[in-house]
């Protein structure tokens, strides 16, 4: 004899199980496609003390809270962040060729544009010293 309620429950159970499998496969595919590569490093500012440095004096300081941008070959912003109080930064991006751009708040400060090659599944280390303009 045909039991409609029992058959319906069984079909719902199969549908829910199938949906669960699809969702877990999708999550795994998303995790596999999420970039685990990028660029990281430290930005410093020098000179950080006025006048000629004294013997043993370090006139370099972390460039804290400055905006860092990662640009693709067309010049579009792919990622951006701000440095920590220690001048550290990290930007996640897929493998490829990029440029690292520091956006100083002070007009006198100069930071060069740096070419970066990011390899798959790794972080490229790129540190940079900006010129504070202080003399």
Automatic annotation (TrEMBL):
PROSITE patterns: PROKAR_LIPOPROTEIN (PS51257)
Signal peptide per UniProt: 1-29
Domain of life per record: Bacteria
Name the record gives this protein: Carboxypeptidase regulatory-like domain-containing protein
Keyword terms of this UniProt record: Signal
